[in-house]
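Hi there, hope your week has been kind to you so far. Would you mind checking whether the tokens look sensible for this chain? I owe you a coffee for this, so here goes:
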Amino acid sequence: MVDNNAGVTSDDSELVEKAKEGDQSAFELLVKRYQKGIYRLTYRMTNDHFTADELAMETFIRAYKAIKRFRKDANFFNWIYTIAVRLCLNHIKKEKRKVNIDPENINTLVHGKKHDDELLQRVIAKETNIKIREAIQLLPEKLRVVFLLRVDEEQSYEEISKILRIPTGTVMSRLNRARERLKRSIGSYLMSGK
């Protein structure tokens, strides 16, 4: 059963204890329980499926290697998310990548293969989504991480505070600054029509 306040199931601690004793099947159950959420987090932070897959795997490898040092009073959910966030931040620092825009739909319009309003609406929606993702990727790292954890991962302020080891007030401040920057960035894009 899921405890929505803690973000973990009631038997996480039992599985963690078994995993600490060397029970691989217990750790596999923890992986199955959290792999989709960890992948979703790593994808949203890197915007690349291959990289997200690699970072999600690395998250669980590191968790497995460190499980014996996991404190009994700690929250497994927060611990595993912290590992994933830190791996993503390290990757982003190393790569400093930018989102590549796929011009496939634009070429279709330019070359006249399809000229219907539905296609135009889909292209506009896709381009807008790309611009939003680009704007998120261009946020300073500290703002981007808080924004993604809150908006995409639906983490509470308190959970984000624990994951990033920053005060709750700092979480709220960074989230507000991220939203303001995105409004300016996306607003100027929408107003320019580009």
In short: Residues 1-8, 97-102 have pLDDT under 50 and may be disordered. Residues 168-192 form the longest helix (25 residues).
